[in-house]
Write a structure and sequence with these properties.
mainly beta, eight-stranded antiparallel barrel, about 10% helix, 20 strands, Porin, eight-stranded antiparallel beta barrel
Length: about 400
């Protein structure tokens, strides 16, 4: 029965014929969109979460299976700023096939986020222009309901991060038309905000809008990036008869604590097309205060090294100030689970070099994961942005010193 239902849903692929005119946004749309979703989440918490009395999860029926499993098909199409039509992109449409799972057990974060779904997705898109290729992608995602998910109507927001490939990248001789992407493989970032409607206990339909972003973090030029703001249509099927319901319950009051982080990062940056890639690195320390289950904030101090600066920087400076830039940053981290988090940082350079394409202000957005029994080992991939233009991709490792007295156990 369930196999037949899935096959019927996949036949909807034949209807992917709708599209709108599109173009490409400046890279600042990426950071702005993340802020939009962050504000939505913060508002939802302030309106609907009480630290002592918040939602807890119960089951319609008992089962040995610890996860609810879902299949999703998402169609998107749409256009963005018409000012970039001259870059060659006239049309866009895409398809996402996704598998999601949802915890049945009621731990702290599944309660806080009203039973979120985590999953894996496959993306396929087309710009209807061979100069840009037919990109595919693999990514992980999280999908969070804003209100009680068992209501007939609801809203969700979703964040996805992965790798896209199969681009026809820029080549001055063989592919001069693509002035947006200089690499075959690019970072894939997706956001969406959707209204969902529960047709039956198994079938859900959704309609909303989102953003899809492709770039390589200035690893290979050109890297203007491709940003899409599609209209999204979704259908979802629940493979089981179980669902996670929501009732009032108790959660232990969060005990705030302090964190001291020390971290380093490395990557590469391209300054001119066809030129070498230059090594870049970051070393930093930060002091953070986690004041809720979901959020922590603080200040950081960082120093950045850029190889080749002695030959590149012509301003009258010491060798140290040519090779190194440094600054301070305000840091905010949004926790999806006790281990997974999204950093959002805003910094100011106290020393920077315009010859390295650095500006006064810089930002950081990415994804982090805490390893180890005590969640002390930091692994992260971040995009450092300097005034909304990619600086470089930071592959980060670090260590976190903290005393967290909170217990992240099952509530029942």
């Amino acid at each position: 029965m369930y196999i037949c239902a899935l096959k019927n849903k996949l036949r909807l692929n034949s209807f992917v014929t709708i599209y709108k005119k599109i173009s490409c946004f400046d890279n600042n749309i990426l950071l702005s969109t993340l802020i939009l979703f962050f504000v939505i989440n913060l508002n939802a918490q302030s309106l609907g979460e009480d630290e002592s009395f918040i939602t807890e999860l119960t089951q319609k029926e008992s089962s040995k299976i610890k996860q609810n499993i879902f299949a999703q098909v998402k169609f998107d199409y749409g256009g963005i700023l018409p000012t970039v039509k001259d870059k060659g992109i006239e049309k866009y449409y895409g398809l996402d096939l996704r598998v999601a799972w949802q915890k049945k057990e009621n731990d702290v974060y599944s309660t806080l986020y009203k039973a979120p779904k985590f999953g894996l997705g496959f993306y396929s898109g087309s710009f209807d222009n061979n100069a840009f290729g037919e990109p595919n992608g693999l990514y992980g995602f999280v999908e969070v309901p804003i209100f009680n998910q068992r209501k007939k109507k609801n809203w969700i927001y979703s964040i996805g991060l992965g790798l896209a490939f199969n681009f026809n990248y820029y080549d001055p001789d063989e592919n001069p038309s693509n002035e947006l992407i200089g690499s075959n493989k690019n970072v894939y970032i997706a956001f969406s905000l959707e209204g969902r409607y529960n047709i039956t206990e198994n079938w859900v339909a959704g309609l909303g809008f989102g953003m899809k972003h492709f770039s390589n973090g200035r690893l290979i030029l050109p890297n203007r990036g491709i940003n899409l703001l599609p209209l999204t249509v979704t259908t979802e099927y629940n493979f089981g008869d179980n669902y996670t319901d929501i009732k009032k319950g108790k959660l232990q009051t969060f005990k705030p604590f302090n964190i001291f982080n020390i971290y380093g990062a490395a990557g590469y940056k391209n300054f001119e097309y066809g030129d070498a890639k230059y090594f870049k690195s970051t070393f930093g320390i930060s002091f953070l205060r986690q004041f809720k289950y979901k959020f922590r904030y603080g200040l950081g101090s960082e120093i950045f090294y850029t190889a080749g600066s002695l030959d590149r920087v012509i301003k009258d400076k010491s060798d140290f100030n040519k090779l190194f830039s440094y600054g301070i940053s305000a840091q905010w981290e949004w926790l999806l689970t006790e281990r997974m988090y999204i950093p959002l940082n805003f910094g100011i350079h106290l020393n920077h070099n315009k010859e390295n394409f650095e500006q006064l202000l810089y930002q950081r957005v990415g994804f982090g994961y805490l390893l180890g029994k005590h969640k002390n080992i930091i692994l992260a991939i971040n995009l450092k942005v300097t005034e909304f233009h990619a600086d470089y991709v930071e592959w980060t490792i670090g260590y976190s010193f903290k005393k967290d007295k909170n217990k992240y156990e099952l509530i029942f």
